[in-house]
Amino acid sequence: MTKLHINKLTPAWKIILNQIGLPYTETDSVEAELVLMNTYSAGMENLQQPGIILTPKVASQFLKYKIYPQKSIFLQGEFADLNPLDLHTNFYLFKEAKLLKSGIQRYKNFWILPFAIEDVIIKNKNQRKKFYAERYELPSEIVSKVSKGNIRRWLQRVFLKILQENHKIYVRYSHLPQPEQNLFIFRIDTDFANLNEVEQLYELLEKYEIKASWYIEATAETKLMKFYRKLQENNHEVGLHCFRHRVFKDYDRNLQNMLQGKTILQKNGIFPRGFVAPFGEWNENLDLAIQELGFDYSSEFSLNYDDLPFYPYTGNKFSANLQIPIHPISIGRLRRSHFTEQEMIEYFRFVLKQKGAYQEPLIIYHHPGHKHWQVLEAIFQEVQAWPKQTMLEYANWWRQRQEAEILNETTEIPFYMQKEDKYTYTKDLKVTTSKLNWQLVKSGKPVMNPNLRKWSWRDWLYNFEAWRGKVKK
Ligand SMILES: [Zn+2]
Q1: How far is the CA of 245 from the centre of ligand 1 (A)?
Q2: 439 has which bridge partners?
Q3: What is the pLDDT of residues 278-334, one digit of tens each?
Q4: Rounded to an integer, what distance in angstroms lies between the CA atom of residue 53 and that of residue 51?
Q5: How far is CA 137 from CA 140, 333, 455, in A?
Q6: Distance 194 CA to ligand 1 centre (A)
Q7: Do 285 and 354 fall within a single domain?
């Protein structure tokens, strides 16, 4: 197993290292393949070991630098598929160091990170952002302002690059429950759908043997509730979306709204374990209400999207509520940006290829009221051979993985190994590596569209529509 030593463990580093799956120890010892120094101690500039990574705060103790405020940066070369890196923080450029295309800087044997992880990973701000497609008009959604998922992937690859240079094998916990490179999870928000729409969707799912995660808008009529109960009996997951389709700023109204929804579901024999907020909205008081009602997990893309699960850090402590980020662009958003059905299919083909290259789960969501069954059918065909789980199954697996990680255990959690450009999975670290079945690492597609971070008048229009939609309900 690859070991990482960190000399000061902060909540932000804890989140990102747990996601990556590298066992870490908080220590001043530099006897590890990867050594992360985020607090300065006298004389560390003389260390000679390979594999030492400095945060900008530490490097600035003995190197000259300039600070540039950066909204988003676009990486080049082998990192170009991780674009854009939405940072909204200070970028440090060190005078004597060499800036690589990956954004990392090198000085002697040191690797220097250009920004502070604490300044990006803990942030809760959101804004409307555009998502990559090969056309002029791009889809958009209100999501986390910082692209936390891309930052985590970037760091994951920086670690790999360092290990490769030192001829070491990268061994970490897998991001997927099976030793395969894909996982498909399908989420449904039932917002104001009618019986005919949900039945059609259910039949399509059955045809492709997909057990989905449905989140119920609890004002639905009795006949719909009967249908949702049948879903639960047929091993689909049934969770809570809302009573009123709103997220409030204060704790009391959030709690009341969720409690009202949960009570209605329970009266209908439905026992929700997961919650997903309307509009993907998140705030600290919502999180407190989710914890109070004892849900196992929640999913809100305004906190984070296209990333691995984590426990949010808010109000100076970790939440007990596991957050599961999804890909936030739904068919509804594509339709609003005038995509044809063929363009929608191509859009999702790109997203699923990218997730496959990252070896991360593909979690997408849909509203039955939006129909577009042909688009869904095309997606389901593409993922036919993939392993599939519900959100709850993945949440439970992730919790087990995190426990294994804390105890540093060899368990049923697969390990991912990478040696140069080849990777493999194993559940047994004692096995001779030559006996494993090594495969070539697929690379992601470069994301380079000049319109991605350019302001457009449509952004204002869509924000206005989102605001109006909330006021109406
Ligand atoms: Zn909704």
Answers
A1: 6
A2: 423
A3: 999 999 999 999 999 999 999 999 999 999 999 999 989 999 999 999 999 999 999
A4: 6
A5: 10, 12, 12
A6: 14
A7: yes
Handedness of CA 38, 40, 46, 49 (dihedral sign): negative
Beta bridge partners of 213: 187, 237
Helix (H) or strand (E) holding 396: helix 391-407
Instruction: Give, as one character, the DSSP assignment of residue 20.
Output: H
pLDDT band of 238, cuts 50, 70, 90: very high
Residue 14 Cα to ligand 1 midpoint, Å, equals 31
Whose tokens are 């047929």? That residue is 234
- Residue 312 near residue 288 (C-beta atoms within 8 A): no
Q: What is the pTM of this model?
A: 0.95
How far, in Å, is the centroid of ligand 1 from the Cα of 277? 7
Per DSSP, the three-state class of 138 is coil
Angle (nearest 5°) at CA 401 between 180 and 361: 40
Domain of residue 143, CATH code? 3.40.50
Tell me the sheet residues that pair with 317: 314
**φ, ψ dihedrals at 122, nearest 5°:** -85, -10
In the chain, the N- to C-terminal Cα span, in Å, equals 52
Q: Which residues pair with 37 in a beta bridge?
A: 54
Which helix (DSSP H) or strand (DSSP E) does residue 416 occupy? Answer: strand 415-419
Domain extent, residue 417, equals: 410-440
Q: Number of folded domains in the chain? A: 3
Task: Using DSSP, state whether 288 is helix, strand or coil.
Answer: helix
> How many angstroms is it from 346 CA to the middle of ligand 1?
25
Burial of residue 315 (number of CB atoms within 10 Å: 0-12, 13-18, 19+): exposed
In this structure, are 103 and 189 located in the same domain?
no
